[in-house]
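Onboarding guide, step 5: your first structure request.
Type a short instruction followed by the sequence, for example:

Predict the 3D structure of this protein.
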Amino acid sequence: MSRALSAVIVSGLVVACTSGARDATGPFEVPVFSHASNAAENANGGNFGTPLSGDEEVPARPTQARGSAIFQLNAEGDALTYQLMVANIENVFQAHIHRGAVGANGGIVVWLYPSTAPVAGPLGQGRIDGVIAEGTITAATLVGTLAGEPLSALLVELMTGNAYVNVHTNDGVGATNTGPGDFPGGEIRGQVEHRGH
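The system replies with structure tokens like these:
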């Protein structure tokens, strides 16, 4: 490899690492969106994703918990694979995609964790870090106002910024909304954005 090419690569890495730096209080940095490196990888339907924090919840939640959700649409447009990661959070019992605009709460349209609606979710599970859910969303997995619709109905919501991911917590003890680890309505949230191919 030539010295000139090496210098370009190194300078590109320095710029990539310094631009878009996040708040130092975040527990980790997750590369939310991948960029394809060859033609075969570019033959896909696109990337979507969002960082998750308590500040995005409605109302905002005082928590150090963070997360990241990433989605990859296949080339046919009929399957959306996902991965949901969290850190500094306790007592997670559910996570979903909801239909709703920034600043508004909306109904569940996809179950992410668990992957289907539980009869009774376990509460008070303690701290969890890392990948908590991954799978594939298809038309058959849509629920709520999108039940019976094609996957394209969800994609419209994702493309227009009218869908968000949130993670719900509950310690299973007494009153709810007592603090981190006990926000059944949602502790961390992020509005899903389209990031291209």
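Each response can be followed by summary notes, for example: Helices lie at 3-18, 39-42, 151-159.
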